[in-house]
Specification:
This protein is α/β, with parallel strands linked by helices. Helices cover 33% and strands 20% of the residues. Strand 8 and strand 9 form a beta hairpin.
Length: 295
């Protein structure tokens, strides 16, 4: 399935959007963020969307051609017909995009859920990935946090999110005034707000990823089983931890140690939302690890 629209992004990167069929009736939005060099696939966290990667892609434009997808239920992608947000769905989305682009030996970057999706995709189809750079992937040992609806604090917080605003400007002002989004670099926050909302005729704007969808994703994040199969991931993987001390940061070291070719990196100055806080530092680290360039 192929459809191209554009341009989309206001932050230095001209994009086109491809439509790609995935599993469970999902139609994905795959955004071409441009750049010169080998293809790199960028995968976003729960509740976000592809174009929050635009500032990182702009910083990588001289060394990579960046693509970013909206996972099912996020951004411009459609919802699964079954209503299930099992995390093997995003892994299927990754593989659908790779097949659509005809890529072999993929270099990819994943943040949070996006990192878990890349690991699950490689486990489902070994030797798909040539190298991975994962910022605090949501992959935990043993119980992995459960997954019982209503018991997940991240899901509870997601359900309480304000879903509508009078305008994008009002939404941006709200987010900029407090953490965690208040820590975002201005262009990353602009990208999140610009493309993270849809217009509601006569009634302002609403989140593209509804709070209930975000909550459903969080509730299934503890039962995907990726940690138990990390030994099957043969490609080099850099696993990045922030300095915020939250569970994803300490789990990152455990993930790196469990991988046959894992490397750990700590970016002390950042939190779990580091790719949006300092896109240039993140892009430099990606370039150094995936393209053997000086950081």
């Amino acid at each position: 399935m192929w459809e191209v629209t554009g341009p989309r992004c206001q932050h230095g990167t001209v994009t086109t959007t491809h439509r790609v069929a995935s599993t469970d009736g999902v139609v994905l939005a795959l955004h071409d963020l441009g750049g010169d060099g080998p293809e790199v696939l960028l995968c976003h966290p729960t509740g976000f969307h592809a174009l929050t990667w635009a500032p990182v892609a702009a910083a990588l434009a001289g060394v990579a051609h960046c693509w970013a997808l909206d996972f099912r239920g996020h951004g411009d992608s459609t919802h699964p017909a079954s209503g299930s947000y099992d995390w093997h769905g995003p892994a299927a989305d990754v593989l659908a995009v790779i097949d659509h682009l005809g890529l072999d030996g993929v270099r990819a970057v994943g943040h949070s859920m996006g990192g878990a999706a890349l690991l699950l995709a490689e486990q489902a189809r070994p030797a798909t990935m040539a190298g991975l750079w994962l910022y605090e992937p949501i992959v935990f040992p043993a119980a992995e946090g459960g997954g019982v609806p209503g018991s997940n604090p991240m899901a509870d917080r997601a359900r309480r999110r304000k879903a509508t605003f009078p305008s994008r400007a009002a939404a941006r002002a709200n987010y900029a005034a407090k953490p965690p989004l208040g820590r975002f670099r201005a262009d990353a926050l602009d990208a999140y707000v610009e493309h993270g909302f849809r217009d509601v005729p006569g009634d302002g704007v609403e989140l593209r990823c509804a709070p209930e969808v975000e909550a459903a994703v969080f509730e299934r994040g503890g039962d995907h089983g990726a940690f138990a199969h990390l030994g099957e991931v043969a490609c080099p993987v850099t696993v990045v931890a922030s300095g915020d001390g939250a569970p994803p940061s300490w789990a990152a070291q455990l993930v790196a140690e469990a991988l046959p070719h894992g490397r750990s990196l700590t970016m002390e100055q950042l939190t779990h939302f580091g790719p949006m806080e300092d896109p240039d530092a993140v892009a430099a680290a990606i370039a150094a690890d995936l393209f053997d360039l000086p950081a």
